[in-house]
Amino acid sequence: MDARIVGWGHTPFGVHRDLSFEALVLAAAGEAVAHAGLAPADIDAIWLGHFNAGMEPNAFAASLALGLDPAMRFKPATRVENACASGAAAIYAARDAIAAGRVRTALVIGAEKMTGLDTKGVTQIGRAHV
């Protein structure tokens, strides 16, 4: 079985000082699930493409999506990191799981909030991954 994108959502690009990383993840995920016409219970697994948890205090970013709805509580959630291609890597990982028959419906989220640190802090983290 090949995967199909049946819903999507995104937050506006920009600096969101009033929104936490978790709020951004939940907003995009909720919009995507609603756009797909699914209930959160229909989701079999979650993949989150996220470059570097060092820019965010929450080191377990993949589990943030579980807060979308109580029906998501025991869904497996995986964070995928591949620098600037983290979101694409999450799509490929979810597609592979669908093709393998391990899941039928996947929620894939790509998220970054690079304004939690100043320019020097972001540069330092970026250098650590080169």
Explain the overall architecture:
This protein has 130 residues and is an alpha/beta fold. The chain has a single domain, classed as Thiolase/Chalcone synthase (Peroxisomal Thiolase, Chain A, domain 1, 3-Layer(aba) Sandwich), CATH 3.40.47.10. The protein contains 3 helices and 3 strands. Strands 2-1-3 form a 3-stranded parallel beta sheet, sandwiched between helices. The longest helix is centred in the first third of the chain and has 16 residues. The protein is globular and about 45 Å long. The model has no long low-confidence stretch (mean pLDDT 86).
List keywords for this structure.
31% helix, alpha/beta, globular, single chain, Peroxisomal Thiolase, Chain A, domain 1, 130 residues, 3 helices, 3-stranded parallel β-sheet
Count of the separate structural domains: 1
Strand line-up in the sheet with most strands = 2-1-3
The first-to-last residue Cα distance is: 37 Å
The top-level CATH class is: Alpha Beta
